[in-house]
TrEMBL record:
CDD domains: NAT_SF. InterPro entries: Acyl_CoA_acyltransferase, Bact_Acetyltransf, GNAT_dom. Its EC number is 2.3.1.-. It holds the Pfam family Acetyltransf_1. Keywords: Acyltransferase, Transferase. Residues 3-140 form the N-acetyltransferase domain. SUPFAM superfamilies: Acyl-CoA N-acyltransferases (Nat) (SSF55729). This is GNAT family N-acetyltransferase. GO terms for molecular function: acyltransferase activity.
Length: 140
């Protein structure tokens, strides 16, 4: 089946959100509402991608962006029936290429400790698991 990779657009929200909802290991919050994702895409143009199958259905997503210093990747998800075909890896490559073009030299991501599939994927893809770092969060 032919796969197409392209920049994620605001119009992809409904299908992407539906995929995230059914993706194990993915935590959604108010930051994933339509308005917030549209703002994210507008702030980080060209760094987020979807993979479409030949029927035009979203088979995979990645949100990529940076703060001018480091890159961050979120919501790497591939539809269960499309996994193991290189889609996740290609989405990560596309996003990292764009971040590199923007002068960003390192990218971070969050993955739940108990997300075995996700942890194996990142380790297999050459990402370094950091230890000795805690994440602190606060409402603004
Ligand atoms: C993780 C996920 C995105 C992988 O997508 P995918 O399209 O199946 O991955 P790919 O086919 O591109 O695989 C890329 C590499 O990771 C490896 N890999 C993928 N899934 C793996 C798994 N479950 N266990 C071990 N290795 C895995 C592949 O073997 C491949 O390695 P290779 O290039 O050396 O052969 C997909 O399983 C998914 O959506 N999981 C749920 C959401 C999630 O955990 N996201 C990531 C955490 S934020």
């Amino acid at each position: 089946m032919e796969l197409t990779y392209r920049e994620m657009l605001a119009a992809d929200y409904d299908e992407s959100h539906a995929l995230w909802l059914k993706t194990e290991g993915m935590v959604l919050s108010e930051a994933d509402a339509r308005k917030e994702i549209e703002a994210y895409l507008a702030r980080n143009p060209g760094c987020s991608f979807v993979c479409e199958d030949s029927a035009g259905q979203v088979a995979g997503t990645i949100l990529g962006g940076h703060d001018g210093r480091r890159g961050f990747i979120y919501h790497v998800a591939v539809s269960p029936d499309q996994r193991g075909k290189g889609i996740g890896g290609q989405l990560v490559k596309l996003s990292l290429d764009k971040l590199r073009e923007a002068g960003i030299q390192k990218c971070h991501l969050f993955v739940l400790e108990n997300n075995e599939i996700g942890n194996r994927f990142w380790a297999r893809s050459g990402w370094m698991k950091r230890s000795g770092i805690a994440i602190f969060s606060a409402d603004t």
